Amino acid sequence: EIVLTQSPGTLSLSPGERATLSCRASQSVDQRFLAWYQQKPGQAPRLLIYDASRRATGIPDRFSGSGSGTDFTLTISRLEPEDLAVYHCQQYGSSPKTFGQGTKLEIK
Amino acid sequence: EVQLVESGGGLVQPGGSLRLSCAASGFRFINYWMSWVRQAPGRRLEWVANIKQDGRKREYVDSVKGRFTISRDNAKNSLYLQMSSLRAEDAAVYYCAREGFGGFDLWGQGSLVIVSS
Fold first, then answer.
1. B61 CA: distance to closest CA in chain A (Å)
2. Does A55 contact chain B (CB < 8 Å)?
3. Could you identify which of B8, B27, B100, B105 might form a hypothetical disulfide with B20, taking C-beta atoms 3.0 to 4.6 angstroms apart as the criterion?
């Protein structure tokens, strides 16, 4: 089973700043089959990025993904107050599909 | 509207059974693999099970093998999760999720399962 470790656990930034979230896998993720989700309080997760760098439908270009192998990054440029959420990474290259523990993004 | 709506959650005693349902609408259900994903308080999201479009292939996380059964009825655009021998650690919000080109591209609102005596 691939274990995903996200860092930092909590990130506190101001509107307009850039957020950089990390996801590290215990072994290489096949074909960059890694996704990022945003989960706002009381809501279900929403897909932001798939295949490590492809934006899902309707996701603004402030959100971008990069990485391969075992190291992946989600970047949110120009933070907005509504970006307050927990962000999860997930690999779907091997079974079982697994998630990271999440990074909580706080907006000052 | 494209959506997934779960139902069937509730309070169940340890060792008991529960069946979750997920009604899909607004898209061609038969075209997609479907999954159940759960989220226990303070824990990471956990993929539980998935099922192929025709129902002929199913996969489970080890912790539920032999206790949970995923199924689907394409004529009714519905997904199910039959849970038995429930344990305290199965308590969670259970989400129905559609597997898209990559990742889970559509989620339901979740159904809460509480396992307690």
1. 6
2. no
3. B8
Q: Coil, strand, or helix at residue B113?
A: strand
φ, ψ of residue A83 in degrees (nearest 5): -80, 0
- Residue B77 CA to residue B84 CA, distance in Å, equals 23
Find chain A residues with C-beta within 8 A of B50's C-beta. 97
What is residue A42's predicted lDDT score, i.e. its pLDDT?
A: 92
A52: alpha, beta or left? (left if phi > 0; alpha if psi -120 to 50): left
Q: Profile chain A (108 residues) by mean pLDDT over runs of 10 residues.
A: 97 97 96 95 96 96 96 96 97 96 96
Asked if the C-beta of B56 comes within 8 angstroms of chain A's C-beta atoms, the answer is no
Residue A46 near chain B (CB below 8 Å)? yes
Nearest residue of B to residue A31, measured between CA atoms: B102
Instruction: Flag if A92 and B102 touch (Cβ within 8 Å).
Output: yes
In chain B, % of residues over pLDDT 70 = 100
Residue B51 has pLDDT above 90, yes or no: yes
Token digits for B2? Answer: 């494209």
Which three-class secondary structure state does DSSP give residue B62? helix
- Identity of the residue in B44, B61, B102 whose CB atom sits nearest the CB atom of A50: B102
Residue B101 has pLDDT above 90, yes or no: no
Is the CB of residue B96 less than 8 Å from the CB of residue B108?
Answer: yes
User: Residue B67, Cβ neighbours under 10 Å: how many?
Assistant: 15
Task: Please judge whether B44 and A97 are an interchain contact, meaning their C-beta atoms are less than 8 angstroms apart.
Answer: no
